[in-house]
Design goal:
- The complex is a heterodimer of chains A (314) and B (541).
- Chain A is mainly alpha-helical.
- Chain A contains 13 helices and no strands.
- Helix content of chain A is 76%, strand content 0%.
- In chain A, helix 6 crosses helix 8 and helix 7 packs across helix 8.
- Chain A is globular.
- Chain B is globular.
- The chains are: A mainly alpha (314), B alpha+beta (541).
- The interface between A and B is large, with 69 and 67 residues.
């Protein structure tokens, strides 16, 4: 196990380097620069040029990239041009809202998705199955912002039982933090539920055709035991991949939902960094999110081993 | 639920009740949400006359601001910053500059020399007294860091602190507008800070709120990006005694704290002010105006002067370096249609040929016979005269600002009907700003301008601003305007200038945009202006 983990972690370094370089080049190719944005719309080109020089943005590209890598080697992600705060600090500030939002969304997605998928599979062809599949289809098709705006309209504006938007830090009020995230989490959770439910259903249907299930039934076990103790565990293997993917996407930041709900998460920071051409911040976020993807994949692989002992012996 | 599935079994048992119930529930949910949305018990706003101290005022803004208002022309920075950082002069209710940190001042008869006597005993947030040395250091920095500052300082020969409370400024060319330039009516503001704070950042933006020290009724307390910017009352504020007028006069800090909350989505800002999560929401969509106007929990205040919508033409290169082409552009347009398309409700827009607003003393309709011509025939004539051969005209507009973009769509449709071949390019705003700097890349771009306090400050008449309108005659008119304070004389000069503007037509003005502010019913003391401010504001029940 240890060498397996070490091998996988070693992949992290080249992946991050490639992501960082490609990201930097792509951003630089996009027209627009942070000096123009900061100077504002009424500034003349002369004003912008002065600001650009003062921010150190007029140096050649390869120099900027090399300097960034040199800093990275020392563990320093640089400073945001727009905010002039260390990128590391800014990203760390976002960890709490993003982590909380991700956990809540995943809890909803998994808590709803797997049971729904199981129920649909076990009652295949029935109205329940059809209903679940329709709901799952809605989850895949409905735009996040539309769903969130409607939820806000009903729960916050009409019934006034939840806040409209914004965030309260856990250190100030745990309940406040959760209340602010319920609607965004419900939105993101619902969208992920669809994916997980459909995956669970497909895999469960296949699993239920397996020989060992027939054996279990022949032994006289109740259907409930057959499903829960035997079928479900094997179903989980591919489903865990989907859950892992969903988690990684959520951790990377649900940009639209965070912007609409005014949650200070990573997604919101990403979109601002891009719109303002804040290169150091964008770079830092890119490699952070890439690292998250790699680590989540790793976690999924470890869970595989736990779920399916055969993997260990391969 | 766990009944085993046998091969070939048919499952169409009647669970349709469940299905119907679920669908019906969802339907009721959504219909109810729409129908019941406006059902609310009306509340009578109480008349409050005595200001109350206390409370936290919550203001929803669109995005995180650039902190240092001196370094940017973005107005949000100045709207926030003015609470903490003050200027030598302030605009009163007729948008005329009056002394603020200055006590009295003298201008030489030829307008080349100013002597400012400062108020005494004015304290900075760090407890030190403001002196002439601080003023000189702050103004010099403003002259380096702000575009508007650089404009003035190109004309400054000397700036000295003559004694503890006296500052002398000597100019090369006459300029009667120095008090206006040094006032708080602009972004990239000339704010007064302690000399040692200023000297730490001689050339670059200050981005640490602990260093943004001023004399204002509030001071910076905390900035957490995407969460809030917090200002708290400065207990030792030394202000003026006069009755408040516009931005000037007495500035009472009644609320304890002001929280500026970045909320990017306009509909969410609206929802927040509707339910009372914030007391003030900036920049709400024009389409929502009819709804907020009748909401009994809200106050809606129209604001004019406001902004004006424009199509800026590239006078330096390309098809619009030809005056005939520009005139053709102007002749084709039906301004009403464009304004209605972009701004919607009629309360929110007005036809106005002048580059100044009707509320301003220097308004004139000189040249207005060229405005809103709606004359396609004439436009086609002019196109032919100019020898236009159908080459594509690059028009940049950003959907980041829906009203900018809507003016482009409406105008493009009209222009294409008379024979212009328009290549409308949508891009995000930072890209537009970048491309705007290069005259080879565009022929037209869409924008809105905030009101100008004086014709000499109009960006569209500045040859160095994108559009590049270079007219020696116009520059001469601007010089003349800077030489005299006499209102009648100035009006005469501006009439000639505006007439010239309509002959040259470097930038097309569509018309005026009346803004609107939305506040909760319990916010008192607010004076609506194009740049919101919250001193003298208090919270009732």
């Amino acid at each position: 196990m240890a060498s397996f983990l070490a091998g996988r972690l070693a992949v992290l370094v080249p992946v991050l380097l490639i992501v960082a370089t490609v990201g930097f080049l792509l951003l630089q190719l996009t027209p627009g620069d942070p000096a123009a944005v900061m100077a504002g719309p009424d500034a003349t080109e002369y004003d912008v040029a002065i600001l650009r020089e003062r921010l150190g943005l007029d140096r050649p590209l390869h120099i900027q990239l090399l300097r960034w890598f040199a800093k990275l080697a020392r563990g320093d992600l640089g400073r945001s041009i727009f905010f002039n705060q260390p990128v590391t600090t800014m990203i760390l500030q976002r960890v709490e809202p993003t982590a909380l939002l991700t956990s809540m969304s995943l809890a909803i997605a998994v808590g709803l998705g797997i049971p729904l998928g199981v129920i649909a599979a076990v009652n295949r062809g029935s109205t329940v199955d059809q209903a679940v599949m329709v709901v799952a289809l809605m989850g895949l098709c409905i735009p996040a912002f539309w769903l969130l705006l409607n939820l806000i309209m009903v729960f916050s504006v009409m019934w006034r039982i939840l806040p409209v938007a914004g965030y309260v830090f856990v250190r100030d009020s745990l309940l406040g933090a959760i209340r602010h995230l319920i609607l965004p989490a419900a939105t993101l959770g619902f969208l992920s539920t669809a994916l997980i439910a459909r995956m669970t259903r497909s895999v469960m249907l296949e699993t239920l055709q397996e020989d060992y299930i027939r054996t279990a039934r022949a032994k006289g076990l109740t259907e409930r035991v057959v499903v829960y103790r035997h079928a479900l565990r094997n179903t989980m293997i591919p489903v865990v991949t989907v859950i892992g993917l969903s988690a990684a996407v959520l951790l990377g930041g649900a940009i639209v939902v965070e912007s609409v709900a005014a949650v200070p998460g990573m997604g919101r920071l990403v979109i601002q960094a891009v719109l303002r051409r804040d290169y150091p911040l964008m770079q830092g976020l890119l490699i952070t999110i890439a690292a998250i993807y790699v680590l989540v994949n790793l976690a999924v692989d470890v869970i595989y081993v736990y779920l399916d002992p055969r993997v260990k012996h391969q | 639920m766990f009944r085993r599935v046998r091969k070939g079994e048919n499952h169409l048992k009647t669970r349709s009740k469940f299905k119907i119930f679920a669908v019906a529930l969802a339907g009721i949910f959504l219909i109810g949400a729409f129908v019941l949305h406006t059902a609310r018990a009306p509340e009578e706003p109480r008349q409050e006359l005595t200001p109350r101290y206390g409370g936290t005022l919550r203001v929803a803004i669109t995005h995180n601001p650039v902190l240092d208002q001196t370094s940017t022309t973005a107005t949000l920075s100045m709207v926030i910053g003015r609470h903490a950082l003050e200027s030598l002069f302030s605009l009163n209710s007729t948008y005329t500059p009056v002394p603020h940190l200055v006590n009295t001042y003298d201008m030489s008869p030829d307008g080349t020399e100013y002597v400012f006597e400062l108020r005494q005993g004015v304290l900075f947030h760090n407890g030190n007294e403001m002196t002439a040395e601080d003023v000189v250091a702050s103004l010099r920095r403003w002259g380096r860091v702000s575009g508007f500052g650089r404009t003035l300082f190109r004309n400054v020969i000397d700036l000295v602190a003559e004694d503890r409370y006296t500052v002398r400024m000597v100019l090369k060319d006459p300029d009667v507008l120095v008090p206006l330039r040094l006032s708080d009516g602009f972004a990239a503001t000339a704010v007064i800070m302690p000399a040692d704070a200023v000297n730490e950042f001689p050339d670059s933006p200050i981005d640490d709120i602990r260093k943004l020290i001023g004399t204002g009724p509030y001071r910076y307390e905390e900035f957490i990006p995407d969460v809030h910017l917090k200002m708290v009352r400065f207990d030792d504020y030394v202000g003026r005694d006069e009755e408040p007028s516009g931005f000037s006069g007495r500035r009472g800090a009644y609320v304890d704290t002001i929280l500026f909350l970045p909320v990017p989505d306009a509909m969410i800002r609206l929802a927040k002010v509707e339910v009372g999560e914030v007391h003030f929401a900036e920049r709400l969509p024009a389409d929502e105006y009819p709804t907020v106007k009748v909401n009994p929990e809200l106050q809606t205040k129209l604001v004019s002067p406001g902004r004006w919508g424009a199509a800026v033409l590239n006078n330096r290169r390309g098809v619009f370096s030809s005056r005939t082409m520009r005139q053709a552009f102007l002749a084709a347009l039906d301004m009403e249609e464009v304004l209605r398309a972009a701004l919607g409700p009629e309360d929110l827009w007005r036809l106005n040929p002048s580059l100044m607003f009707k509320e301003q003393a220097i308004w004139t309709d000189a040249g207005s016979e060229f405005y809103n011509q709606k004359n396609p025939t004439r436009a086609r004539q002019l196109l032919e005269e100019a020898g236009y051969d159908g080459e594509p005209i690059v028009w940049m507009a950003s959907p980041d600002y829906p009203d900018h973009f809507a003016t482009a769509l409406a105008a493009t449709a009209q222009l294409e009907r008379v024979g212009f071949n328009i290549d409308l390019q949508a891009m995000d705003f930072p890209t537009l700003l970048a491309r705007r700097a290069d005259p080879a890349l565009w022929d037209v771009f869409s924008t809105f301008f905030m009101v100008s306090w004086d014709p000499t400050l109009l960006m569209v008449l500045d040859p160095s601003w994108p559009g590049w309108y270079e007219s020696e005659q116009m520059q001469e008119y601007m010089r003349q305007l800077r030489r005299t304070m006499d209102p009648a004389e100035r009006l005469e000069i501006w009439e000639k200038a505006q007439r010239l503007y309509y002959e040259d037509i470097p930038t097309i003005k569509y018309g005026d945009n009346v803004l609107f502010d939305v506040l909760r019913h319990n916010v008192h003391g607010y004076w609506p202006s194009p740049f919101p401010f919250f001193w003298n504001v208090w919270l009732g029940d």
